[in-house]
Amino acid sequence: MAKRWARWRLTTGLTVQSAVLGTKAVESFNAFLDSTRIPVTGTADIDREVIEGFLAYLHTHTAGTTTHRMRIGQFNTLLLTMRRHGWVTDLPSKAQIYTEDYRKETVRQPRALSEHVMAQLENPENFAKMASPHHRLITVILIRCGLRISDTVALTQDCSTRDKDGAPYLRYLNHKMKREALVPIDEELERAIAEHILYVNGTGNSGTRQLFAHDRVDVYGAGHLSPSSYSTALRRWVRDCNVTDENGTPAVVSPHRFRHTLGTRLINLDVPQEVVRRILDHDSHQTTAHYARLSDTTIRRHWEAARKVNATGSVVELDPDGPLAEAAWSKQRLGRATQALPNGYCGLPVQKTCPHANACLTCPMFITTADFLPQHREHRTQVVQILSAAEARGQQRLVEMNTRVLGNLDRIIETLDDETPESPSLFAGGGQPCGQITAATSGWRRSAGTNSPAPKP
């Protein structure tokens, strides 16, 4: 039955590696039966009691790992498939796995490689130590395009294409989503692909369509390198190059971590999350948010470099190297998370309540930066309109309140206009992303302020 299930899954387009996950779940169930001596001679003996014992077995042997949840899900898929297709007729109705049987999924930290590790991997001297031309190009594609390894090794020789404007793209089949996808690349990678096609066709594989054609057709008939063979070569290369992390311990590098790294790099370059989602070809923003998160150091670098003024237009001096630097940064993070405002940030500790019933521009705890200049100018226009109408109607109290707000706005705008610091470089290390992404990002930056909603006066 397990073999029949695996064969059927392969005919639906599932990759061999994905089908193997299902067979491993069946192996775990078999190991559970062997260890407990439960008399199960067929599917008729698999009832809810047996399944609960299997769940306890998995909890004992795989608790706290991703394998735990994966084994439960794969075994449940087998039960559902057998029922749906009528492969068995004696499976008890109570042989089911319910939602509450799955362990609670914890929010995992992103697995992006640090720039310290990436600098070593992208070092030309280390890169030259990777002997196979196949492996070198695969590594470049993984780093620059963020493809999954199973999609990368299956690339065909017609994977490079251009749009009507002449911009190059990499076209590939997203096996997980079962759809074709495109990712922008630069001319350098396009030339590398063209040169690799000449190399493949000159090694006795002139009749193949595969970009990474194997010297012989492998046992699955795919005709290209397997993901496992590249993963093995990658680990060997990392070990030979003596790649270490910041603590000096050997770095743990896997093909999928390059995907996380690209997502994190793009986010830290201020590329909008929607653009990152499209580049990684995710269905949901939730997945993109997991893969690519702003690093705390990036946010802090922005915070330290920004010119900050309070509601009266006075510059707020913060010493990033002072004895209270870490405490001040923690306070700033907490304030941004719990008391963020549309035109600045509140510096009031969260333990206190705001004593000011007026707008935040009359509050001494208000802090803003040049990022909000478009909002401040728009706000000033609205205040002037309100003042004119209030004066015409003789509403002195309204005039008094908004005159103070207008004065503060003028001082804020004047102070922030005096000096607007350049944004610091957010990209450390080698491996620049493709030019199309950078150009799109700079255009988004220019329009971000004008598209933001204006605060209410």
Model description:
The chain is 52% helix and 6% strand. The chain is of the alpha+beta class and 457 residues long. The protein folds into three domains: 2-101, no CATH class; 115-291, hpI Integrase, Chain A (Orthogonal Bundle); 307-420, no CATH class. The chain has a four-stranded antiparallel β-sheet with strand order 4-7-6-5. It has a three-stranded antiparallel β-sheet with strand order 1-2-3. The chain is extended and about 90 Å long.
**CATH H-level superfamily title of the largest domain:** Intergrase catalytic core
How many β-strands, per DSSP? 7
Q: Would you tell me the overall average pLDDT?
A: 78
H-E string: HHHHHHHHEEEHHHHHHEHEEEHHH
Name the shape in a single word.
extended
The helix/strand class is alpha+beta
CATH topology of the largest domain: hpI Integrase, Chain A
Level-2 CATH architecture of the largest domain: Orthogonal Bundle
Roughly how much helix do the residues carry, as a percent range?
40-55%
Tell me the fraction of residues in β-strands, as a range: 5-15%
Radius of gyration: 29 Å
Largest sheet, strands/sense/barrel: 4 strands, antiparallel
Strand order of the largest sheet: 4-7-6-5
Number of helices: 18
Return the CATH class of the largest domain: Mainly Alpha
Counted up, domains total 3
